[in-house]
Write a structure and sequence with these properties.
Elements: E1 2-4, E2 7-9, H1 29-48, E3 52-53, E4 59-61, H2 62-68, H3 74-78, E5 82-84, E6 90-93, H4 98-107, E7 118-127, E8 139-148, H5 153-169, E9 176-182, H6 186-200, H7 208-216, H8 237-240, H9 243-258, E10 264-265, E11 279-285, E12 290-297, H10 301-304, E13 312-318, H11 319-328, E14 341-345, H12 348-363, E15 368-370, H13 377-386, E16 391-395, H14 397-402, E17 405-409, E18 415-418, H15 423-430
The structure holds histidyl-adenosine monophosphate.
Length: 431
């Protein structure tokens, strides 16, 4: 430990330094501020779309995800942070937010008729043991949206327009494409899967993930990051879909276009979670080829997890990926951070008066601060500058004795003399 002018510096002992877990982040200063601003914008948009918040535990029974997300998904097969508690119960840190929301809907009987359609959102950390890289973390955060009890083209369109409204609110206008597809189901899907397997059997050099997926969930082979682009001649899903499904996809596309939301139909978009049943979509960052918003319909999940038959759909947004794009496009979401007043106390008595003034000003909703370590004017002005103060006042022997406090406006450079008891009123008047 050593002193540097007014600051005490603690020197880290390198050999004792404990680092954050791989694939996690510390957020502070401007990053945590931007983070909160993004969250705030999300809440604002969700409020005008008339959604209410749901808060569920950070860990859940392992079984929820094995049954909910599906054991052929990467999430369940290799990415869950699992642990056993002292009583031998198997839990996981939640690897996504949809299955927990569905569990809560069923457990709390939120599906009763008068609650429907039930529209809810969540915000919170998600844990996946993935290989960390830019935009891919082991602890990341999702802003999620789920709706229960509605299944219609209009709703599909509204859901995608909600994702778009959030990006608009953040002023993210570039480098995003919205891809949509409609997953086939039932007998049509079985026929298609059989054809796809036949087609894939001619490939002898597929990656190990593809080889596993051929048997577990063959559709996923199509969006394999390693081999996906080899399958250009693969049978196309829409050729096996009913006229009704294809019409629905086309109508969704057209209605979104008429609302000014350009989408692209991608017949190979299948998503990595097993619960999707109809519409699937992704808002992708074209520069990184990563999805920042992703979701779709999952009309069987509520029933599969023990609830009634209830259509559902939703999406989740990765906050880290939003932060990346904001940084890349130089967009600042949070408000300018300014102090209404910085107080420089120059004696013990001045420190006492400063506390009095701080309390009064803060109760009046003014953002004010001081630095108790400063011992002279020079250090005081430096602190004020660092904290972006709009006004500065010095509390010293002269001002205390005369009850004349010179408040310096940092922008105009002007100084105004004010009595101690009038400082808060004066600052409020300037706002
Ligand atoms: P997901 O595609 O697995 O879907 O994740 C949704 C979003 O979370 C992604 O688009 C991405 O922005 C972010 N994300 C995923 N993995 C990571 C990671 N390792 N690091 C940083 N960000 C990541 C779901 O989780 C579904 N529950 C979405 C949903 C809601 N479907 C219906 N309702």
């Amino acid at each position: 430990m050593f002193r540097n002018e007014n600051v005490i510096i603690f020197k880290a002992k390198g050999d004792f330094m404990i680092q954050k877990p791989r694939g996690t982040q510390d957020l502070f200063l401007n990053n945590s501020k931007e983070w909160n601003a993004v969250e705030e914008k999300f809440r604002k948009v969700l409020n005008v779309f008339n959604y209410g918040e749901i808060i569920t535990p950070m860990f859940e029974s392992k079984e929820l995800f094995v049954r909910g997300v599906g054991d052929s998904s990467d999430i369940v097969s290799k990415e869950m942070y699992e642990f056993t508690d002292r009583k031998g119960r198997e839990y996981v840190l939640r690897p996504e937010g949809t299955a927990p929301t569905v569990r809560a809907i069923i457990e709390n009987k939120l599906y009763i008729q008068e609650n429907l359609p039930y529209k809810t959102f969540y915000i919170g950390p998600i844990f996946r043991y993935e290989r960390p890289q830019a935009g891919r973390y082991r602890q990341f955060n999702q802003l999620g949206v789920e709706t229960f009890g509605i299944d219609s083209i209009s709703h599909d369109v509204e859901l995608i327009s909600l994702g778009q409204s959030f990006l608009n609110e953040l002023k993210i206008n570039n480098d995003i494409v919205v891809e949509i597809n409609y997953l086939i189901s039932g007998d049509e899907r079985k026929t298609y899967e059989a054809e796809l397997k036949k087609y894939l059997s001619s490939f002898t050099d597929l990656c190990s993930d593809c080889q596993t997926r051929i048997n577990k969930n063959v559709l996923r082979v199509l969006d394999c990051k390693i081999d996906g682009n080899k399958f250009t001649d693969a049978p196309k899903m829409f050729e096996f879909a009913s006229q009704e499904n294809n019409d629905r996809l086309n109508k969704t596309f057209i209605q979104l276009k008429e609302l000014g939301i350009e989408t692209q139909i991608n017949f190979n978009l299948v998503r990595g979670l097993d619960y999707y049943t109809g519409l699937v979509f992704e808002f992708k960052n074209v520069k990184t080829d990563q999805a920042i918003i992703a979701g779709g319909s999952y009309n069987n999940l509520v029933e599969e997890l023990g609830g009634p038959s209830l259509p559902a759909s939703g999406f989740a947004i990765g906050i880290e990926r939003i932060m990346m794009i904001l940084k890349d496009q130089n967009i600042k979401v949070s408000d300018e951070d300014e102090l209404d007043l910085f107080i420089i106390p120059l004696s013990d008595e001045a420190q006492f008066l400063t506390n009095k003034l701080l309390l009064e000003a803060r109760s009046a909703n003014l953002k004010v601060d001081t630095n108790w370590n400063i011992k002279n004017l020079k250090a005081g002005f430096k602190s004020a500058e660092r904290m972006n103060a709009k006004n500065i006042v010095i509390v010293g022997e002269n001002s205390i004795n005369s009850d004349n406090y010179a408040i310096k406006d940092q922008i105009s450079g002007e100084t105004t003399e004010v009595k101690f008891n009038d400082i808060v009123k004066y600052l409020k008047g300037k706002k």
